[in-house]
Amino acid sequence: MVGVKVGILYSRIRKDEKLLLSELRDRGHEVTKIDVRKHQFSLDGTTAPVEGLDIVVDRCLSTSRSLYATQFLDAYGVTVVNGPETADVCADKAKNSLALAKAGVPTPKTDVTFTKESAMQSIEKFGYPCVLKPVVGSWGRLMAKIDSESAAEAILEHKATLGHYEHKVFYIQEFVEKPGRDIRVLATDGEPVAAMVRSSDHWLTNAAKGATVEPFELDDRALELVEKASAAVGGGLLGVDLMETGVVSDDKSEASQTESGVDYTVHEVNHTVEFKALNDAVGDDVDVPGKVVDWLESKAAESADKEAEVSA
Amino acid sequence: MTEAECVECGGDVALSDDLETGEIIDCGTCGAELEVIDVNPPVLDRAPELEEDWGE
To answer: The ATP-grasp domain covers which part of the protein (chain A) (predicted)?
Structure first.
């Protein structure tokens, strides 16, 4: 594909962004790095150099910056991936859970409550252990596995007293007995680029928490769920997280059963997905940044076609 | 491979050839996290502290 003018929104260049930058430049694309900390986003325009870009990729490390910057760029008519609607759903665990449930994607049972008292009622309903998560957060931070009533009371008290207002939105979830690992799938509009399992002795299996990673072959059921989960949040370059939930019960359709008898629950979809651990896990078997850039090129071409239609 | 001065301890920090503005590197002497402010010539500053909304 001929040179595409690509903007990268960022406030920190991680190894993920370096992989992306390197692939884009190797293919002869013109890359403009946009540090969102240095710019103003006004109602009628921005100091950010987005003029003339074919596509902008949101790689903001900060969720709040990602949410606002993508909204403003979208308002200026700039093609931005992932789009603001996807960012909005994925950035908030409650919205994420609602979108998955609405699309019929199996996801852990979840309650949202606004007071300690109602949170305790939910916790008692789920039983011990259950999980308390911040609605906005990543890398396994501030996640609590609650093993007892006294632990629940202490955590809720701390959150209600010390936390930002978002911590007073209690997001409570059933504890899923996963086999010491979960699955991360990097997907572009529902099409998997690569997948890995993240294993740990700890209940949190985030790569950022030091889980070990290995490549993973997706079966038909997992492929189906990745596609549905991606569509549920509006599509894009996404990290879909699944947990294995054991043998499929008899009342489920044949289509949902896998050869191994394992089914899945999708606990999260991430919109500024990191892929360095996945890239290391799959090694030379999959060109992860290459496939991501293939997809970006196709999105840029799609956007150019739409513009041509409008101006015709 | 070039070098720059750590703003925390004054030690020399080795820089890779594919250095990028916005990248974070660790000072090998004091362990400080440093942000690359510019690459030509290389300029380093203390990296921002981790914020609650950072992640993916």
So the answer is: 97-297
The last residue of a domain, from among A174, A204, A231: A174
Q: What is the dihedral of CA A295, A299, A302, A303, to 10 degrees?
A: -170
> pLDDT tens across B37-47, in order?
999 999 999 99
How close is the nearest chain A Cα to the Cα of B30, in Å?
21
Which CATH architecture describes the domain B2-46? Single Sheet (2.20)
Inter-chain CB pairs, A–B, below 8 Å: 58
Which residues constitute the domain of residue A137? 109-174
What ipTM was predicted for this assembly?
0.89
Q: List residues in chain A touching B: CB distance below 8 A.
A: 10-14, 17-18, 21-22, 33, 35, 61-64, 134, 136-139, 141-142, 164, 208, 239, 270-274
| Among candidate residues A190, A257, A251, the one with its CA nearest the CA of residue A221 | A257
Q: Do B56 and A272 touch (CB under 8 A)?
A: yes
Q: Is the pTM of this model over 0.90?
A: yes
